[in-house]
Design a protein that fits this description.
Length: 493
C-alpha cells in the first residue's frame, strides 16, 4: 500500500457516498400502472441517452442516438413520420435538434404525477435488428404540491398604521402558471375579500404575494388566508389566520433566529420602530454583550459578536419606541434556540438504481455547508461481475481493480437560493452534466467537504491552518497521481 502524505492527513474531510447503477430501467414509482421491466441493454449500441425518470410537466422527451441519423437539412425541422407514441396519449410535435437528437414537445403540459409509457419507432430512423425495432420505456411527471408562509405584516407608510399589508411566499413543487396560482389563493378580513398582488418567478415555482389594504383598528382583528389546491389538480387545501394587532397594542409579534452565514435574531413588532433610538440596554441577550442592531421598518435585526449555540434569553424592555415615539407598554422575554447542527451531507432515500437519461437528477441534503466536493467513481460494465464478487451494490472494496475516478468538482451551495444554510436544505445534482453515462456501468457518487467549507465559526481557524498546511493540487492527468489521491481514503488493497 502506498504511504499517505501528511498533507492529505491534515485535510479534514468527511465523505458520504451512494452508488448509481446506470441501466436502461426505471424504479417503481407512484402512478396508474407499474413501470416497464428492464430495457434491453443492446439498445445502448444505437441510443446514447433519453429523457426518463421523473420529469417536470413542461419537459420535452428527448432521445440522443449513438450516431448521426439525419442529414443537415432535417435539423431544426419537424419529423415527417410519427416516431413517438404515448400511453396515455400525448399530442405534440417531434423536432430534430441536431443530426442525432430528436425531441418530442408536448402541445400542453403533462399531467402531474402521471406515469407515461413511451414507444419510439427506432427502425424508422436507423437499421436495427428485428427485436430492437421499437424502443419502449416509461417516465413519470413530478407530483405537484405547494406550501406558503407569511414573511411580515407592516404598514405601507411608517406613520400611517391603519393601512397594512401582508407579505408572503407560495412555493410549488413544479411549474404552476400565474393564473392557476392566483386562482387558488384567497384572503378575507371580517368576511370581506381582500385584493392580492403577485410576483411570479420565471421558473414558475416561487410566487411572492402581498395581501393589500388590510385594516388595523382599535380592536384586534385577523385575516383568514386559504390556499385550495384544486386549481393545481391536487386535493389539498391549507388555511391560516394572521393576527392584526390593535392600534393601541404596540408589541412583539414574532421572533426567529436566522442561522445563515451572519447569524442573527429577527424580532418583528406590530409597529415600525424609531430608527434613531439607542437600543443598547433595551434589547439584551443573556450572557452576550456588544450586540449590534439594524432597524428595517417593523423589524430589528440583532447580531451577536460571535456565533452562538444553545438556548439564550432575549429580553425586550418596555421603553422601546415605535415610529410615533410611543413606548411599548410591557416588556417581553423569549427563550430562543441557536441550533448549530454539525456540518453534514446525506443522500435522500436509499434507492441505488437510476435510469440512464438526459436528466440523472440525484437529490441530497446538506447543513452548515457553503460548498461540497462531488466525486464520481466509475466501475466499468465489463468489471461489474468482478466488482460484485466482493461487494453489494453499495460496497467500495477493491474498487481500484474494477474502476477509476472520472469526475471531481467543488459545488457551491451559496448561490442555490437557500437563505438559511444553518438548517437542513435539499439540493440536486444533475449527473448527466458531469458524466456521459455508460450502459451497464456502476457509478459511485461521493460527497465530501473540508473544514473550510462550513458556515461555522471554526472557519477562521481553518483558514489560518490552510495557510500552514496548503491543500495539494489534485492533478488527475496521470493514472499514478489519480490513484494516489483516490487511495487517500480508499480501503486497503
Amino acid at each position: 500500500m502506498k504511504n499517505i502524505s501528511w498533507k492529505k492527513i491534515a485535510l479534514i474531510t468527511i465523505v458520504v457516498g451512494v452508488f448509481v447503477f446506470v441501466l436502461f430501467t426505471v424504479l417503481p414509482t407512484q402512478g396508474t400502472r407499474e413501470p416497464s421491466k428492464f430495457v434491453d441493454p443492446a439498445f445502448g449500441e444505437y441510443i446514447s441517452s433519453y429523457s426518463s425518470g421523473v420529469l417536470s410537466s413542461g419537459s420535452g422527451i428527448r432521445i440522443v442516438f449513438a450516431r448521426d441519423v439525419v442529414d443537415d437539412e432535417a435539423v431544426g425541422k419537424e419529423s415527417s413520420e410519427d416516431l413517438f407514441s404515448f400511453n396515455p396519449s400525448v399530442k405534440g410535435t417531434a423536432l430534430w435538434l441536431d443530426k442525432r437528437t430528436i425531441e418530442f414537445k408536448p402541445a400542453n403540459r403533462l399531467q402531474s404525477g402521471q406515469l407515461y409509457e413511451v414507444r419510439f419507432a427506432l427502425s424508422s430512423v436507423m437499421d436495427v435488428p428485428g427485436n430492437l425495432k421499437s424502443f419502449e420505456y416509461t417516465f413519470q411527471v413530478l407530483e405537484q404540491n405547494f406550501e406558503f408562509t407569511i414573511e411580515n405584516v407592516k404598514p405601507y407608510v411608517k406613520t400611517e398604521l391603519t393601512r397594512q399589508k401582508i407579505e408572503g411566499i407560495l412555493l410549488t413543487s413544479d411549474f404552476a402558471s400565474p393564473e392557476v396560482v392566483e386562482k387558488m389563493f384567497t384572503a378575507r378580513q371580517e368576511n370581506k375579500p381582500l385584493s392580492i398582488t403577485w410576483s411570479h418567478s420565471n421558473e414558475g415555482k416561487n410566487h411572492a404575494f402581498i395581501i393589500e389594504n388590510v385594516v388595523r383598528k382599535d380592536e384586534p382583528g385577523k385575516v383568514e388566508i386559504t390556499a385550495d389546491g384544486k386549481s393545481l389538480g391536487i386535493s389539498r387545501s391549507e388555511s391560516l389566520e394572521v393576527e392584526i394587532p390593535s392600534l393601541r397594542d404596540f408589541k412583539v409579534t414574532h421572533v426567529r433566529v436566522d442561522q445563515g452565514t451572519s447569524q442573527h435574531v429577527v424580532v418583528q413588532f406590530s409597529d415600525p420602530i424609531n430608527e434613531k433610538q439607542n437600543l443598547n440596554g433595551l434589547i439584551t441577550l443573556s450572557e452576550v454583550s456588544n450586540l449590534e442592531f439594524e432597524v428595517h421598518d417593523n423589524e430589528v435585526l440583532i447580531y451577536p459578536p460571535v456565533r452562538q449555540t444553545g438556548t439564550k434569553s432575549l429580553t425586550l424592555e418596555a421603553g422601546i419606541q415605535n415610529i410615533l415615539n410611543y413606548q411599548m407598554k410591557e416588556g417581553a422575554t423569549f427563550d430562543i434556540v441557536f441550533e448549530e447542527l454539525k456540518p453534514a451531507t446525506r443522500f435522500v432515500g436509499k434507492g441505488n438504481i437510476l435510469p440512464g437519461s438526459e436528466g440523472l437528477i440525484l437529490p441530497f441534503e446538506a447543513v452548515n455547508l457553503k460548498s461540497v466536493d462531488v466525486q464520481i467513481v466509475k466501475v466499468y460494465e465489463k468489471n461489474v461481475i468482478q466488482f460484485l464478487q466482493v461487494n453489494d451494490y453499495d460496497g467500495n472494496s477493491e474498487l481500484r481493480r474494477v474502476g477509476k475516478p472520472v469526475y471531481k468538482k467543488r459545488i457551491s451551495l451559496e448561490n442555490s437560493g437557500v437563505t438559511d444554510l444553518g438548517k437542513w436544505n435539499r439540493f440536486t445534482l444533475d449527473l448527466a452534466s458531469f458524466i456521459d453515462a455508460e450502459l451497464g456501468a456502476i457509478y459511485q457518487v461521493r460527497l465530501s467537504f473540508k473544514q473550510s467549507y462550513t458556515t461555522l465559526a471554526c472557519n477562521e481557524a481553518a483558514s489560518q491552518r490552510s495557510d500552514e498546511f496548503p491543500e495539494p493540487d489534485e492533478d488527475w492527468s496521470s493514472p499514478e497521481a489519480e490513484f494516489s489521491y483516490w487511495d487517500s481514503y480508499e480501503d486497503y488493497y
